[in-house]
Specification:
392 residues; Aspartate Aminotransferase, domain 1; 2 domains; 7-stranded mixed sheet; 4-stranded mixed sheet; 15 strands; 36% helix; binds pyridoxal-5'-phosphate
């Protein structure tokens, strides 16, 4: 049994491959936004499993739903239908506002992207377009689309014929999205890149260009979906309709679940045998997801997320060392001076807050939707004290 953070770190070093930096702490339990490490120290979790634990940790209604489901059916594969999956698919289709939408369930974000790539291969065109700085996952297809060469290039050869847009550049999209483009993949806000928000009208311009040249538009809402930005999907503020939506992360409320939703004609491209997943949309993950949606709807979290996000942004924007605060709803990037985001993240951890240094300049916050006004104010005050000390 692991009894301390240092024991967890050394056990990690001797067992886990080096794809991640060895964690300094290990967590043993959580409730709401508060988690406890192996040394017994408590933290307010403001990154939530990387934008995933929408209802925090150990939410009673999720615990109840997955316990009940596990006593009925844990897993049946996609050879058979089950109630939770069908219910969830109906709800996701309703969220797209288009009855022609059809859902393909998988287990993660990268798998949802892979499904969309394969869907694009069933059109006559083969060229794909994504954005510089984007992140779409780590599988071979998803990393081919990821616009970050440090993560991508060591794994070449990757998918051919991928072009990367200068994110937010209206002229560049006209140059790179052409009659040869099969599908464009775009994040409504680039999360991993440091919460980068495009200029107003950018997604609409991509939509229009796709229509002009006959390309499909896939919006990667894996980080910005299921209410995080104040809408079900992060593109809704632009009033457009994509052909494909990918979701994962928050939908399962902490359980592995993803989906590729195709709308209109492209929902008919897959045929039996085209694609599949043994675990995709398994009953326990779907039971959790239905509970997540129940809570978001009944507690009106779409609007409260926007209010909470605005409050947080307003409290940190004038803090010394902060050069910009970006994001929408509860996906927030705080840009700081002198490449000190990781140092600030470490200090925050010592002070009892878990945040993510998305890169050297940006601290990313993606907390549970249950975060309270009091927790937001307390965080802002601790953050300010740390920044005053560092930048004095
Ligand atoms: C926008 C976006 N797409 C895809 C992914 C990949 O998701 P997963 O890690 O579940 O494969 C991520 C993960 O951070 C993401 O933020």
């Amino acid at each position: 049994m692991i009894r301390s953070n240092s024991a967890a770190s050394s056990s990690w070093d001797s067992t886990i491959q080096q794809t991640y930096t060895t964690p300094v702490i290990g967590l043993k339990r959580g409730r709401g936004l508060v988690v406890e490490d192996f040394d017994g120290k408590k933290y307010v979790d403001l990154i939530g499993g990387i934008a995933t634990n929408l209802l925090g940790h150990a939410h009673p209604s999720i615990v109840k739903a997955i316990t009940k489901q596990s006593k009925e059916l844990c897993h049946i594969s996609n050879l058979y239908a089950h109630e939770q999956g069908l219910k969830l698919a109906r709800r996701l289709i309703a969220m797209t506002g288009d009855k022609s939408s059809r859902v393909y369930f998988c287990n993660s974000g990268a798998e949802a992207i892979e499904a969309a790539i394969k869907l694009s291969r069933l059109t006559v065109k083969k060229q794909l377009v994504s954005a510089q700085g984007s992140f779409h996952g780590r599988t071979t297809g998803a990393i081919s689309l990821t616009g970050q060469s440090d993560k991508r290039d060591q794994f070449k050869p990757l998918l051919p014929k991928v072009k990367y847009l200068k994110f937010g550049d209206f002229n560049d999209l006209r140059r790179k999205i052409t009659r040869r483009t099969a599908m464009v993949f775009i994040e409504p806000i680039m999360g991993e890149a440091g919460v980068v928000v495009p200029p107003k009208g950018y997604l609409e311009a991509i939509r229009n260009r796709c229509d002009e040249v006959g390309a499909l538009m896939a919006i990667d809402c894996i980080q910005t979906g299921i209410g995080r930005t104040g809408d079900w999907f992060g593109y809704e503020t632009e009033g457009i309709k994509p052909d494909v939506i990918t979701i994962a992360k928050g939908i399962g409320g902490g359980l592995p679940l993803g989906a590729m939703i195709a709308i209109g004609e492209c929902a008919k491209l897959f045929t039996p045998g085209s694609h599949g997943s043994t675990f995709g949309g398994n009953p326990i993950s779907c039971a959790a997801a239905n509970k997540v949606l129940d809570e978001i709807e009944s507690k009106k979290m779409l609007s409260s997320n926007v209010k909470k996000g605005d409050l947080l942004q307003s409290l940190v924007e004038a803090v010394p060392g902060v050069t910009e605060v970006r994001g929408r709803g509860l996906l927030i990037g705080i840009q700081v001076m002198d490449g000190k985001s990781k140092e600030i993240a470490r200090e925050l951890q010592v002070a009892g807050y878990l945040v993510n240094g998305a890169n050297d300049d940006v601290i990313r916050l993606a907390p549970s939707y249950l975060i309270s006004e009091k927790q937001i104010k307390q965080f802002a005050s601790v953050f300010e004290k740390i920044c005053v000390r560092i930048y004095a």
